[in-house]
UniProtKB/TrEMBL annotation:
Organism: Anabarilius grahami (Kanglang fish)
Top-level taxon: Eukaryota
Descriptive protein name: Immunoglobulin subtype domain-containing protein
Length: 116
């Protein structure tokens, strides 16, 4: 079950996924029914924020928190002539687990700020 802003945005029973009707996510979410992996397409600033994932599998419950920041930048257009040098702008993304609580039975482990 994936949460954003206090609301469930995607969940699965392992066979079928259901999604929020929130316009910010309309036709942009894809939940893998087997792994629970959530893909957000065409990301915009409005989807920046904290996402919570809760996985219930048999008696094991795990919770993960992800902080997502989307930034827009102005695309600078430049005219170049054949043979001119061009520096390409590229995007580099990193995902970090902000807070991960792993629970098994009566034991809970807290893992923070680990690369995903």
């Amino acid at each position: 079950m994936w949460w954003f802003g206090g609301s469930i945005i995607a969940e699965t029973d392992g066979n079928e996924a259901s999604y929020t009707k929130d316009e910010r996510f309309r036709d942009r979410l894809k939940l893998n029914n087997q792994t629970g992996s959530l893909t957000i397409k065409n990301m915009r600033i409005t989807v920046s924020g904290v996402y919570h994932l809760e996985i219930n599998h048999n008696t094991v419950i795990s919770n993960k928190t992800f902080s997502v920041t989307v930034q827009e930048f102005e695309v600078k257009r430049e005219s170049v002539m054949e043979g001119d040098s061009v520096i390409s702008q590229s995007c580099c993304c990193s995902v970090y687990i902000h807070n991960c609580d792993w629970a098994t039975g009566d034991h809970m482990t807290d893992i923070q700020n680990n690369p995903f």
